[in-house]
Amino acid sequence: MSLNFSFIVLEEHPYGREMLRILLENDLIPNLVIQEVSPIGDEERQKFLARMAGQPLPPRLNQLISGRKIPSYCVPNHNDSSCKELLEEAQPDLLVLGGTRIIKHEILEIPRLGTVNAHPGLLPWLRGSASVGWALYKDLPQGATAHFVSPGIDTGDIIITRQLPVYHHDTYESLNYRVAILAGELMAEALTMIARDEVNPTPQDPSQGETFKVIPADLLEEGKQRLAEGHYSHYAD
Fold it and tell me: What CATH number corresponds to the domain at position 91?
């Protein structure tokens, strides 16, 4: 079964670019791409570029879809009426998030099968922001999780989750880069499972894990030092 899905992403978000690259390589072609061009988009893009500093960057979104018949639009906010109208016209079975602000119910209710996100951390233990940094600081495993989106922050049913092997040569930046790739791979697997009707989602236990905001600089440095000094507890080598 082919899957009719729309892809929404903050303008040129490196996380979303990596995800779309992997989806296209797996012949998972969106019926629509909608970028949000906004101050929030600028802030989030710079935040992720800093986290991945020195790592290879995926092609820009217009390069990825060049030569493909994929309609592409820009809106000032993914929750506004212009985005809602575009999605209602496209009538996707599924909405795929490639790095966005929190999406409101009016948008989430449009796709027939729901909305899927790939979170750069292991749910339910690390919800919210800066999961790679928080995992280092709290000495927890790294990984990613593809999940259905619910009204809460990263609280939806889990489709697939996988731990990322961490090596002694890894840095904070290389982990963010590799987690982004893993998240894209899990999204491709999740969409394939949904297309084949092979998904058996696992509800999250709300009493497990924590929801984090952006990690303070001093705590991030402590986590980076743990990694650099070889004191991290979850090395694969």
Answer: 3.40.50.170
